[in-house]
């Protein structure tokens, strides 16, 4: 099967791409196509991408994203998926959350372990990421609990606890090699985000700053709070510099990522909390972030771990 050259007209289409388990794929695809037809969304073309052989593309002249996503989930399970209202292309801007998205940990929870209060802080973090607590007050409460912790614990935490998600570096650097600007924007802290960004290849970092005095955390933030509105403002500011029609990719996992996910052309929820999943038009249920490259149609032969802009 081939999904190249699907349409030659100018009209909008609904395009879905998913990373399919090839076992019984044709039977499941036939059932999904029938369900789409029954829902009044006949499929114009379906097939595997020539350049990403495990990516199935389904194209409809018209349709409802949420309904199509539901049908594909019913027949293909919780697979990696992206649905767009245009032909999918490589974005010009990539804006990403950090904690539990580019790295596998929540930095403040791991740092709290050095103060012996991880369980207490992690409970607040989980509730905030689910959207059950207001972000700024939850952030300040957690930071306040760290008052008096030696600043050196941050470097130790970074060295011993913080690890990138598999495929993070390849995702960032491959996109950069394609001319995409990369920005890490986090409700976490520059103490962590700056070295993570350098390791992964991000060009800009936006985040919070921990207050430090006398070699210990003050329990306060230094400067304004980086929250959901900051993430959205960063995305919009960066997009405005690229010109009309520039496609934007955003990834995140929590409630404070929802505004930027909704504003992006490709808003992808990575192993996300329910509210973030519902807001997204894409999702990664597997572990490897390189799944995003596949959904964008970038062949594995073009992936790079390092990119030198010079």
UniProtKB/TrEMBL annotation:
Pathway noted in the entry: Amino-acid biosynthesis; L-serine biosynthesis; L-serine from 3-phospho-D-glycerate: step 3/3
Listed EC numbers: 3.1.3.3
Catalytically driven reaction(s): O-phospho-D-serine + H2O = D-serine + phosphate; O-phospho-L-serine + H2O = L-serine + phosphate
Pfam families: HAD
Requisite cofactors: Mg(2+)
Annotated GO MF terms: hydrolase activity
Keywords of this entry: Amino-acid biosynthesis, Hydrolase, Magnesium, Metal-binding, Serine biosynthesis
Sections of the chain in a coiled coil: none
Family affiliation: Belongs to the HAD-like hydrolase superfamily. SerB family.
UniProt-recorded name of the protein: Phosphoserine phosphatase
Species name: Qipengyuania citrea
